[in-house]
Structures are given as structure tokens and as C-alpha cells.
Amino acid sequence: MAKVNSNPMPTRNRPIVWTIAGSDSGGGAGIQADLATINDLDAHGCSVITAVTAQSSVTVASVEAVSPQILIAQLDVLTADLAPQAIKIGLLANQQQINLVANWLHKILLQWRERGLTVAVILDPVMVATCGDALTGSEALDFTPFKGLLTLITPNVTELATLAGRQLITPEQSVQAAQTLAAQLQVSVIAKGGDIGPNWDEGLARDLLVCHQVTGISSLHSEHAFWLTSNRINTNNNHGTGCTLSSAIAAVMAHGFVLNDAVVVAKAYVSQGLVQSYQPGSGPGCLARCGWPNTLSVYPFIQPLCEATAKTSSNNLNACGFMKLTTQLGVYPVVAELDMLQQLLKAGVKTIQLRVKDPADQLLEQKIVQAIAFGRDYRAQVFINDHWQLAIKHHAFGVHLGQEDLVASNLKQLSEANIALGLSSHSYFEILLAMQHKPSYIAFGHIFPTTTKQMPSAPQGLDKLARYVDLMQGELPLVAIGGIDSSTLAKVKKTGVDDIAVVRAVTEAVNPAAAYQALVKQWTEGE
Ligand SMILES: Cc1ncc(COP(=O)(O)OP(=O)(O)O)c(N)n1
Ligand SMILES: Cc1nc(C(=O)O)sc1CCOP(=O)(O)O
Ligand SMILES: [Mg+2]
């Protein structure tokens, strides 16, 4: 059962999303599905109709493309008044429409870029309706005019095969075709596994995400490929699934989420919509609209393609999970110096992190040994940042690792040493990756601008934090970090996040111990 969204977006703040697509008179797909999705995901939808279809759930009786004049008139009139944060492109009924929209996009994206506006463009290369009837003419469509203009293209296996110009039987062939398409069109690709072939796992719905120069995320993920796997939902009510996925991706990106996040949220949105789907006619029915997905179980499992291809059992998937924390983290200081660590322990700190970032620090091991000893003396949870091998060697209480650190670490060894684990995250995508390791807590940042560390991602802000809190409720402690101090603490607390981690708010205070105690008072008493 989906949770009720406790964080609806105020209507006046809704971002604008356009759908450039065909009308489905049956209401299950096309413009009708797109607008329902966009609205359901707290955005305002505008439509540019490319074609009118006479369509039911069992047949496409006819398709009539709109004229070039009315197509451009719709684009121009919206540009003047309702500029979008994201655009979804669905059915383009013929090559003329592809050329026209691509030309128009080329010019407008330049203009918007000059004004500092970034607009995500998601193309669903629709060719055939769910009932099997063609939506485009018999001519082969050439999408290369869109090269360099798109953020994401979302073909299913049949469309991918058409774009690749060859049959795709095995997952390996689809992977190669998706990677080739990404390079050819200079675009990220989600190759949807809905139309599975005989060599695919039929109990699962597996999509391949090929990232191409994705911005605002760690370089660890921005050029990589991932399998996104969900349980296959046993229903024939899948009319409009592709339209729903692509318009959901556009809507989520319009809210300022990075591409990888939009893809996993949209996939979860489709999964929950399929579970509650219904059949209004005698053919395949439609997805239900269940709002922003905030139940972890509907989100996909993420596996980097390189790990899947290596077929090795990863040292980094830990079936049992890490220690459950019995002492709440509360206000969690992160410090670079031992004397600061001791000073704060004396002031009553019960959880603290030693974060030494100088790899050439000659005293590193000594500092770690001493920090762990202080932790025992003061009965506090001392986490060691990054240096997991030294933490194991000297029996630390806990280790904190970032997503980049995970690549070089051995979580199996950490777990066998009974060491608590904190993992960093900066997006839905990274939260899901972190959750797969069953850590002791997940840190999420950076909430506000910070000077402590250079970040590849933008500050997350409170709206996103509230969405992550909604998702994580009751699963694991979620710790907010980045730019938190006495002036922002109350707003952070209001999101319902479990704990906060702070660097400068304590370490740069005239009296760090007093600053810590004041933050604790504010956090616990809400002052
Ligand atoms: C509580 C907490 N949250 C996040 C971080 C950042 O960890 P990481 O991403 O590995 O970056 P570095 O701290 O290593 O620069 C943290 N240390 N603690
Ligand atoms: C170390 C660190 N990690 C972050 C993340 O988002 O992963 S933000 C951050 C720095 C937090 O410092 P301050 O409290 O001084 O802003
Ligand atoms: Mg680190």
C-alpha cells in the first residue's frame, strides 16, 4: 500500500513541463497519460499536439499528423508565456515533424542557455501502440537531427532494435545497442526491458540506464551504465507505460532532481501505477496515478553494469547488514583534529567523527588510534572517516564512507569486524545504492551551501530533504549534513530528519563545546 504523500508541492510553485506528443482518444497513453502523470507529480503540464489518433484500448483506427504550422504555433505560443523546466517528446508522426521539432529545439535551447536556463529534454521514440498497431507511417524515422539536443532517450527493446537497425535477442546485444545509441546521439539512454526476449529474466523488469555526461552528480556515476531492476508486475494493463515513464522523468527533472534520480523515481512511479492499474475497455488497461512514490519497496535495485558483467560476487554487498545504532546520533560533529575531538567528548558528545583528509599526514594512524581510545574512555561512538583498514586494525566503533570510497573498500571485512557503517548520499539514486549495503545510517547532503568541501552536486535544499525523509521513514537513521548551523537548524528539524552532522558550526565557533551544547539544546528542545 502506497504511503500518503505528506509533502505535497504548493500548487503555485509547480514547475512547468511540456509534452510534445500525440492525442490518444482512449485516454491511456499519449498526451492524456502525460498530462495526468505530470499533474500527479506536482507539476503543471502544457501540451503540444503532434497528431490526433482515433484509438481505443484494442485498436488504432487512424492517425492524422497536425500541420507544420499548428505544430510550430503551439511551440511558439508556449515559449512566450509558459517556458518549461523540462520537455517530454513522444509521438512524432513523420520525418518532417522530427526535423521541425529538432530545428526548433536547437534554436530555443541556445536562447534559453544564454538566459541561464537549463531545460531537460526527454525523447520517447514512440513508433507502435501497445495493441501492436503502428503510429507512424511506413517510412523509417531518422532521429539523428536530435543529436546533442536531448538529455535522455527512452526506447523499448523494439524501438532500440529499429534505431540500431538490427535484431536484439540477448541482453548483451541490447547493452551494446544502447551504448552505441548514447554515443551516436550524445544522449543518456534508458533501454526499457519491458519487451523481454527469450534470454531475459522473465520474473524481473530490467532497464538499462546508460549515462552520458550527466551533470550534477559524482563522476563515479556520470558516464556509467546501470541495470535498474524491479519485480515484474503481472498485468496486461500496460497501455501508456512508456509515455508515463518518460513524462514522469520530465516532471521529476523539472523539480530540480538530477537525471539518475528522475529515472529511479519514474520507474517507481510506473511500478506503483501498474500494481493499481485498471481496465476501462476490453484491451490492455491503464496505469493508476498514485502520486510521488515514497515507498522504498517500489524503487528499483541498482547494479552497475561493470559489476554485472564481471559476474563476481561483490565484496561490497552485505546480506546481513551493519550494526543497528542503539544511541541516537543527534547532533553529530565531524572534526579534523584530535584536541577538538577530545574537547567535544568532554562536553558530552556521544557520537563524533574523525575526518582527516590529508593523505600525507604522517600522524594519521596515531590520530586514529587515539580517537578510538578517546571513544572508549568517554563511552562515545567514534566514527573514522575514509580509513576503513585502519579502523578495522584498531577496532573502531564505526566508519564513514562516501560513494567513491565504497569502490575501494571491503564491506564484508568491515561487517565481519562488527564495525558500524555510515554512508554518504546526495540523491535518490545514491540513497538506493547506499541502502543496498544495509548500513547503520545514511548521511544526506549537502543541504545548504558549504565551504568545507567541494561538491559535484548542487545544494539539495529542504524540499528534497523532506522527500528523502518521507522515503526513509523507519528504515534507517537519516542524517542531514552541509551548511547546517543554529540559523538553519530549525528548518532542517521541521523536515523530520533523524539527525544532523555539522563541521563549521562547531569547529569554527569561538567556543566549540558551548556551540555544540547550544545546537543540542536547539535540536532537542526546538528552540
Ligand atoms: C556524516 C557525514 N556525512 C557525509 C560525509 C562525507 O563523506 P564523503 O562523501 O566520503 O566525503 P569526505 O568526508 O570523505 O570528504 C561525512 N564525512 N560525514
Ligand atoms: C564533509 C561533508 N560532506 C558533505 C556531503 O554532502 O556529503 S557536506 C560536508 C561538509 C559539511 O560541512 P559544514 O557543516 O561545515 O557545511
Ligand atoms: Mg570519504
UniProtKB/TrEMBL annotation:
According to the UniProt entry, what is the EC number of this protein?
2.5.1.3
The enzyme's first-digit EC class, named in words, is: transferase
Q: Where is the signal peptide?
A: none
One GO term under biological process is: thiamine diphosphate biosynthetic process
SUPFAM superfamilies linked to this entry: Ribokinase-like, Thiamin phosphate synthase
Pathway given in the UniProt record: Cofactor biosynthesis; thiamine diphosphate biosynthesis; thiamine phosphate from 4-amino-2-methyl-5-diphosphomethylpyrimidine and 4-methyl-5-(2-phosphoethyl)-thiazole: step 1/1
What GO molecular function annotation could you give as one example from this UniProt entry?
hydroxymethylpyrimidine kinase activity
**UniProt keyword list:** ATP-binding, Kinase, Magnesium, Metal-binding, Multifunctional enzyme, Nucleotide-binding, Thiamine biosynthesis, Transferase
The reaction(s) catalysed by this protein are: 2-(2-carboxy-4-methylthiazol-5-yl)ethyl phosphate + 4-amino-2-methyl-5-(diphosphooxymethyl)pyrimidine + 2 H(+) = thiamine phosphate + CO2 + diphosphate; 2-[(2R,5Z)-2-carboxy-4-methylthiazol-5(2H)-ylidene]ethyl phosphate + 4-amino-2-methyl-5-(diphosphooxymethyl)pyrimidine + 2 H(+) = thiamine phosphate + CO2 + diphosphate; 4-methyl-5-(2-phosphooxyethyl)-thiazole + 4-amino-2-methyl-5-(diphosphooxymethyl)pyrimidine + H(+) = thiamine phosphate + diphosphate
**Cofactor note text:** Binds 1 Mg(2+) ion per subunit.
Cite the Thiamine phosphate synthase/TenI domain residue spans from the record.
338-506
Q: Which domain of life is it from?
A: Bacteria
- Please state every residue range assigned to the domain named Pyridoxamine kinase/Phosphomethylpyrimidine kinase: 24-285
Task: Mention any Pfam family matching this sequence.
Answer: TMP-TENI
PANTHER family in UniProt: HYDROXYMETHYLPYRIMIDINE_PHOSPHOMETHYLPYRIMIDINE KINASE THI20-RELATED, PHOSPHOMETHYLPYRIMIDINE KINASE
Which family is this sequence assigned to? Belongs to the thiamine-phosphate synthase family.
Tell me what this protein is called: Thiamine-phosphate synthase
Q: Provide the organism lineage as a comma list.
A: Bacteria, Pseudomonadati, Pseudomonadota, Gammaproteobacteria, Alteromonadales
